[in-house]
Every structure is written in structure tokens, then in C-alpha cells.
From TrEMBL:
Belongs to the type II cytokine receptor family. Residues 12-107 form the Fibronectin type-III domain. It is found in: Secreted. Pfam families: Interfer-bind, Tissue_fac. The lineage of its organism: Eukaryota, Metazoa, Chordata, Craniata, Vertebrata. Its main location: secreted. One of its GO terms (cellular component) is plasma membrane. Signal peptide: none annotated. Receptor for IL22. Binds to IL22, prevents interaction with the functional IL-22R complex and blocks the activity of IL22 (in vitro). May play an important role as an IL22 antagonist in the regulation of inflammatory responses. The keyword Aminoacyl-tRNA synthetase does not apply. Keywords: Disulfide bond, Receptor, Repeat, Secreted, Signal. InterPro entries: FN3_dom, FN3_sf, Ig-like_fold, Interferon/interleukin_rcp_dom, Type-II_Cytokine-TF_Rcpt. This is Interleukin-22 receptor subunit alpha-2. The keyword Glycosyltransferase does not apply.
Amino acid sequence: VLENQDLQDSIKPQKVEFRSLNLNTTLHWQPGWAREARDTLYFVQYKVYGQSTWQNKDDCWGIPSHVCDLTHETSDIQEPYYGRVRATLAGVYSKWSLSCRFTPWRETMIGPPTVTVVQSNKSVTVKLQAPRSPYERKKGSKITMTNYYDLLYQVFIINNLLDEQHRVLVYEGKDKVVKIQDLRPGVSYCIVAKTYVPMLDRSSAYSSRQCTVL
């Protein structure tokens, strides 16, 4: 019995946590410290906070990997959820390992906008597209994150003559098309942008650079 108890403890999943980007939500965990861990299989359950019964996640029932997609199961984004994972090895089952409480709307990271730059002789026009959620409209197109959040765009310009790291904020607001004027011909400029959620006081990472020489 003691050996089984040791094996139970040694395969128990560690650090169970939700990770979420643009409401694409996955549950992650780390294997226990058993040496034979690569033969371990995992079982995932989830529930809404306050519910008494756990739901099995069928796609993540007896899987070798350390990640499980719960995007569909957490689609009521204002609700708080829990996930939990247990492991099995050589006929022995570990106890369940529980995640912290996770509320998608509050905790998902929001990605940067997609940026397109169109140049004319002394100005650039920046076109911004909000990131998309995994959820679809009836016609099949993905719902953008602006449906769920009051998003602002922050547009920065980098003058490559001056300093690679020196980003100047040239616009903050909701416009999807931003014109930056009075730029110097022959100078290389790069544009990066972020999304910002005032209500949560949270910014995305920077978008990838779009560079142009006027």
C-alpha cells in the first residue's frame, strides 16, 4: 500500500493553470516527479464555480500531453471556472490537482491588432484590425474582441534614424484607420500598435513592426 501511496504522490500533476489569449483558453499542467512520467496518462475535468458536479472533458481523458483545450467549455466568459487534472500510471491513480479560479473575461490576455501600413509621399495611413475571438457568428465569421471589450488602439512610430527602441505614441483611440502626417521623405519609419482595455487597465504586447521608407 505504501508503494502505491508513493507512486500516487509522485505522479500527481503539478502547477495546474489556465492560460488564455483572445479567449482561446487552455489548461496546462506539469508532470509529477515520477521517473517513469512519460508513460503517465492524464484526465481533465472542469466546472463552473458554485456547481457541485465536475464535467469530464472527453478529448482530454487518458491523454499523454500536458495541455487541454477548454475554449468551448469556458465560452460563458463572465463565469468563473475551475479545472482539475489527475494522472494514472501502472494502474495507480493520483489525487486530483486543482487550478485556481479562472474568469475568461477578466483574465484572458488580449493580443495586438493586425497592422497594415499604406504610404504616400509625406504621410502613412495605418489600418488596424482587432484580434478575433475563437467564437463564431451564425454565418461562420469569427467574432472580434471588440464585441466583448471596450478596446482602444495605441499606435507608435519608430524613427529608425533616431533610435530603434524609441517608440512615440502618435494615436490612442478607437479609429481603425489612422493617418500620420508631416513625416520626412527618405526616412525609414516603423509602426507598431497595441490594444488597450481601459476597464482592466491592460495592454497587449506590441504588434509586429510594419516598416516603410517615404
